[in-house]
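Check this:
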Amino acid sequence: MNITKTEEEILNIKPLADNILVRIKEVEDKTRGGIYLPTGMVDQMSVISEGEVIAVGPGAYTYTGEVIPPCVSPGDKILFSPYGELNIDSPPDVKGQHTYKIIPEKCIKAII
């Protein structure tokens, strides 16, 4: 699912439960050898994505109502699986904008 928001609106998003707002690191479209990759190929290669945590929800809830705090904090650099995400795009005519996603905490594979 994709939604479009301005950068200011995106930075004011407050994730709920165990959801995390992540700024995506741009993927290089050129190999180390200098070969340019088509956009579709770059997207297919992104089995694991890298990003920076911008905001975190309060955590997951247990059956008894206790809160399990998230394992990441704003500013952490993470590796995550891009499945089960919500894409948040900036308007296409705005230059220099970043790509953001809201992901569940269970998709995070590592803090780097």
